Amino acid sequence: MTNGRWTREQLKLAFHLYCQLPFGKLHSRNPEIMELAQLIGRTSGAVAMKLVNFASLDPAITTTGRTGLGNASALDREIWDEFHADWEGLAVECIQLRTALTKADGKPTSTELDTAESAGLDDFTGETRRIFTEQRIKQHFFRRAVLSSYRGRCCMSGLAEPRLLIASHIVPWSKDKANRLNPSNGLCLSAIHDKAFDKGLIALTDDFRVLVSTELKRSEDAFIKNVLLPLDGRPIELPERFVPNANFIARHRMEEFVDGKSGR
Can you give the chain as a three-state secondary structure string? Predict the structure, then answer.
């Protein structure tokens, strides 16, 4: 096991995992923490401690009184800032790091990179295959980061069936490349709530309350009346980490919400 200082690569892998695990599972018995510890030559206790150190840098954690260990280093902060500046690049880099370490250790790889490369991409080669692979890696990271932050529940309905949950972008994927994988640009929503949000039929206020559009309020559909209209004015369940960015919420309301676009 390594006893020296953490390297940048090790810290990147640790933060990458921190983003994808619920706060309550940052402990040494977590199989994913144990797997990463073995991969980078550290104890599972040391990795768990590092993840809790990262939590001490997370405003969504500290504002609730959960301070983590409070022993974050200057390099920990650098890695935190690097990810927030380039979520896409670092998400892909971390999968490549894991794959390289696993292969160097002589073990069969089972990372997202291998899964993405083998999942329906047999007909593609070269640059096209690489683009598809990276796209799947990015989508996988964003989904895990968002769903774990929201405890695996739709923040509007409380639905907890993972097959019906979407990691929904607040500012659409196509409109903000820099924040495509930023978990603070995500909401955990059921498929129906995701579609309503994506189509601008519902939005959020600056204090995270649901806005139901005038179009939906005029509807005579029984499902809309029973399921969507009661959401109006109701606060969403906020995540444990990566609270929705206020600027993203405002952009969605102004650019995507049908009432905002119509000037009503």
Answer: CCCCCCCHHHHHHHHHHHHHCCHHHCCCCCHHHHHHHHHHCCCHHHHHHHHHHHHCCCHHHHCCCCCCCCCCCHHHHHHHHHHHHCHHHHHHHHHHHHHHHHHHCCCCCCCHHHHHHHCCCCCCCHHHHHHHHHHHHHHHHHHHHHHHHCCCCCCCCCCCCHHHEEEEECCCHHHCHHHCCCHHHEEEEEHHHHHHHHCCCEEECCCCEEEECHHHHHCCCHHHHHHHHHHCCCECCCCCCCCCCHHHHHHHHHHCCHHHHHCC
Find the angle CA(50)-CA(53)-CA(57) to the nearest 5 degrees. 140
- Is the pLDDT confidence value at 15 over 90? yes
Summarize pLDDT for 60-81 with one digit per residue, the tens.
Answer: 877 766 655 567 889 999 999 9
- Return mean pLDDT, the chain: 88
Question: In this model, does residue 113 exceed pLDDT 50?
Answer: no
Average pLDDT (242-246) is 94
Bridge partners (DSSP) listed for residue 203? 211
Quote the pTM value.
0.85
Q: How far apart are CA 23 and CA 64, in angstroms?
A: 12
